[in-house]
Amino acid sequence: MVEFTPMQLEKLTELLRTPEPDVLQGDDLPSKGCEITSNRDNVPNEQKGCTKTPKTIEEFEAQEAEEAEKLGQVGAGLSDRKTPVYTMNYQQAVTAEDVFLQIGPKTTGSASCENLIVRIKMPGDKKENVDLSVETGRVTVSSSQHYLLLELPHAINPDTSNASWDSSEETLVLTLKLDREFDFINF
């Protein structure tokens, strides 16, 4: 058994003692008599948008799925107007050479498509009442009855895109010119 001298024990306690901080932290500062409080976390669950606190993993997952479904809806948060039904299709310009001879670099995949066709059914609306905003990554359609904020799967060129109104079907047809980085390879 090893015995320590009192001097060695003092040195050992100095080594094991936590060092003094070089910078004073919030807990180290002297109190000024003021207390800072917040009621941020004391807001009732109804105001936070939470229905209840989940008690099991299954309840938590169900609640997360419900919240994701609400956020994932197009036009979410605009309950006063309906979200119109829409479809998106790719359009490819092909020639007889592409179809029969298959000489060109075009394939049947969407990578060889030039346009994205978006058909938005807006029953009860007229062409004059529709506001359309086209950006490189999204399309916003707004009217007195409908609202659609649509994130696009590919960047487009708003300057070469066009829109038309089909009054017989009350449908807005957008022909959006795709603007992809490597289009020079596909065409």
TrEMBL record:
<dbReference type="InterPro" id="IPR026697">
    <property type="entry name" value="DNAAF6"/>
</dbReference>
<dbReference type="InterPro" id="IPR041442">
    <property type="entry name" value="PIH1D1/2/3_CS-like"/>
</dbReference>
<feature type="domain" description="CS">
    <location>
        <begin position="102"/>
        <end position="187"/>
    </location>
</feature>
<feature type="region of interest" description="Disordered">
    <location>
        <begin position="18"/>
        <end position="50"/>
    </location>
</feature>
<dbReference type="GO" id="GO:0070286">
    <property type="term" value="P:axonemal dynein complex assembly"/>
</dbReference>
<feature type="compositionally biased region" description="Polar residues">
    <location>
        <begin position="36"/>
        <end position="50"/>
    </location>
</feature>
<dbReference type="InterPro" id="IPR008978">
    <property type="entry name" value="HSP20-like_chaperone"/>
</dbReference>
<dbReference type="GO" id="GO:0051087">
    <property type="term" value="F:protein-folding chaperone binding"/>
</dbReference>
<dbReference type="InterPro" id="IPR007052">
    <property type="entry name" value="CS_dom"/>
</dbReference>
<comment type="similarity">
    <text>Belongs to the PIH1 family.</text>
</comment>
<dbReference type="Pfam" id="PF18201">
    <property type="entry name" value="PIH1_CS"/>
</dbReference>
<protein>
    <recommendedName>
        <fullName>CS domain-containing protein</fullName>
    </recommendedName>
</protein>
<dbReference type="GO" id="GO:0045505">
    <property type="term" value="F:dynein intermediate chain binding"/>
</dbReference>
<dbReference type="GO" id="GO:0005737">
    <property type="term" value="C:cytoplasm"/>
</dbReference>
